[in-house]
Specification:
42% of the residues lie in helices and 12% in strands. It has 266 residues and is an alpha/beta fold. The protein has a single domain, classed as Alpha/Beta hydrolase fold, catalytic domain (Rossmann fold, 3-Layer(aba) Sandwich), CATH 3.40.50. A 6-stranded parallel beta sheet has the order 2-1-3-4-7-8, sandwiched between helices. The radius of gyration is 17 Å and the shape is globular.
Length: 266
């Protein structure tokens, strides 16, 4: 069964490299995508609203010729995977949501300006590439090399040895606004495709994320999503927000199992 891998906000397709390698070893056709504004994809001035990016994702599935793939997203990408499953169930076999899919920033930030102030991207342009790499390695000592290199691929390395995020600040904020406006809970009862939720943590306590300060994977939110989604499985994985980078083998095996899950085939 084919699998399409979708990154999170300010990320890139290479965070999925370890997962993709293991899925390919399982015999799956695998593709990952740099969404608009990210990585090596085009960076148009507009089109960063949630509906347009979801349409982009549908176009990717169609252009790849994948027949109802597992669409796996992480964080913002998980919300996109769920949205695509809701809007285009003809294109999605399973929506797999890795530490996302239930994210509703408006619950934490009723005011958009407050959200923008709290979650605006850090000023990384101009920092030395070597310093950024050292910091990533220090913060994630247990990550495999594929996760480290995938994180470094979020930045363009300039001739003077400095870095610049591939995602421009104004595009970042436009995507964040779309995520703030997204209400996945209004979709849950109408999602016809099966959903796999893979939150980071142990299911007992909320945890902090690198993409946004404070808890996102709250057990009550995950449980509410699982109750409301017609066909859903939940598998908690202890680890960081970027589970796919930290534990690529675990995430790949969960996606492989979802492709063969009899609940998801009924």
């Amino acid at each position: 069964m084919p699998v399409l891998l979708v990154h999170g906000l300010a990320s890139n397709l290479h965070l999925w490299d370890g997962v993709a390698e293991r899925l390919a070893a399982h015999g799956h056709a695998v593709a990952a995508v740099d969404l608009r504004g990210h990585g090596r994809s085009d960076k148009p001035d507009g089109g960063y609203d949630f509906a347009t990016v979801t349409d982009d994702l549908a176009t990717v599935v169609e252009r790849l010729g994948f027949d109802c793939p597992v669409v796996a997203g992480q964080s913002w990408g998980a919300n996109l995977a769920l949205e695509l499953g809701w809007r285009r169930p003809d294109l999605v076999r399973v929506a797999a949501c890795v530490d996302g899919g239930w994210i509703e920033l408006s619950r934490r930030f009723p005011d958009w300006d407050e959200c923008a102030r709290a979650l605006a991207p850090p000023a990384l342009a101009g920092r030395r590439a070597a310093e950024v790499e050292a910091e990533i390695r220090r913060r994630h000592p247990d990550w495999p090399e594929s996760g480290i290199q995938g994180t470094l691929a979020c930045f363009a390395r300039l001739p003077d040895g400095t870095i610049r995020p591939w995602l421009a600040r104004d595009h970042h904020l436009a995507i964040l606004r779309g995520l703030w406006e997204h209400r996945p809970s209004t979709r849950y009862p109408e999602v016809k495709v099966p959903v796999l939720l893979v939150p980071a943590g142990d299911g007992a306590e909320p945890h902090d994320h690198g993409e946004a300060p404070g808890p996102i994977a709250r057990p009550d939110e995950v449980e509410a999503a699982a109750r409301a989604l017609p066909r859903c499985r939940v598998h908690w994985v202890p680890g960081d927000h970027d589970l796919h980078a930290q534990h690529p083998g675990v995430v790949a095996d969960l996606l492989h199992q979802a492709a063969d899950d009899q609940l998801f085939r009924s």
